[in-house]
Design a protein that fits this description.
The chain is an alpha/beta fold. The chain contains 7 helices and 4 strands; from the N terminus they run αβαβαβαααβα.
């Protein structure tokens, strides 16, 4: 709390919390409320629909990781492929734009400058 009051720590986050009830409890019990929830966005969790709704309601940033690698079926899907062709984009760019417009902040990393520029 001292570092928060001093402005050293500006944002606190939670990662790998896939249970909406647990997240709600953590949020309710926290003296300093989390401002970020960072989770893998993928089919097995229903794309965290309930957690993303909780985040929207509370002004919490939902940050996705493994956004590409956990979703190869989406990147290879006909709608994403068609959109990529129509837009002159890569399937990854189409998926990132969709995820961003859905209120997620995708976290990505690469050692390739060209890949990052895409």
């Amino acid at each position: 709390l001292l570092f928060v009051r001093a402005g050293v720590i500006r944002r606190l986050g939670i990662s790998n919390c896939y249970d909406p009830k647990m997240f709600q409890r953590l949020y309710n019990d926290a003296h300093v409320k989390p401002t970020v929830l960072q989770n893998r966005l993928y089919r097995d969790t229903g794309y965290d629909a309930e957690l993303r709704a909780l985040c929207r309601e509370r002004g919490i940033t939902y940050q996705s990781f493994w956004t590409l690698t956990a979703n190869p079926h989406i990147l290879a899907s006909a709608p994403v492929q068609a959109a990529a062709t129509r837009l002159g984009a890569t399937p990854a760019q189409v998926w990132f734009k969709f995820v961003s417009r859905a209120g997620c902040v995708p976290l990505t990393g690469t050692t390739s400058g060209a890949h990052m520029a895409e």
